[in-house]
Amino acid sequence: MAIDQGTTGTRVILFDHEGDVHSSSYRGAAYLAGLGTGFWRDEDELSRQWKLERTFEPVFSADKRESLYAGWQEAVKRALRWEHPKAGA
Q1: Domain around 28
Q2: pTM
Q3: DSSP secondary-structure letter at 5?
């Protein structure tokens, strides 16, 4: 990510050179800061600053997803019941 103040004076233009998760986090923080400082009037103006690059669709069947989710829920339940051994035991 690069910041260029030369073309706008007091305004900052953010150039995102990567499409990775970190860049998305930086962009999100910059968007929130811009909203908080009045750089953008509202979320509608801000929403025009980005475009959808791609979407991800599930590849598992509904049955497979539900089975995996049930297993994950069971693992969470067990983890919440985890007991630490007592000292000296």
Answers
A1: 2-58
A2: 0.38
A3: -
